[in-house]
Amino acid sequence: MSKVNLLLLKHEYMGNMYRQGLGFQLEVTREFRGQGNCYDAIVFGEMPGTLEDIADELFDLTNNPSRQEEREKKYGRGRSLSVGDIVEVDDKMLLCCSFGWKVV
Hints:
By secondary structure, the protein is of the alpha+beta class. About 40% of the residues lie in helices and about 30% in strands. The protein is built from 4 helices and 5 strands; from the N terminus they run E-H-H-E-H-H-E-E-E. It has helices spanning about 10-20, 20-35, 50-65, 70-75; strands at about 1-10, 40-45, 85-90, 90-95, 100-104. The chain has a 5-stranded antiparallel sheet, sandwiched between helices. Strand 4 and strand 5 (about 100-104) form a beta hairpin. The protein starts with a strand and ends with a strand.
């Protein structure tokens, strides 16, 4: 079992991220690692699997309408995992990109 956190990009950064793309995402991520305040951290709990398997599962859980009831039990009514957000598993991080994930 791995310790899992979601780092959700704050609303005020989302517009720039969509306009400026991956370069902005990586810049914001570096700011977060340097104690910036671009993300809201949510402790998700423990999950089995590899880093990418966990990230894929969380993306599906928070975005798949057929899993809404399960989502609310595990995650509440928080927003879905989106481009620019980070999945942190045991101190390793994956950035959600337009297509797939990037290790940060």
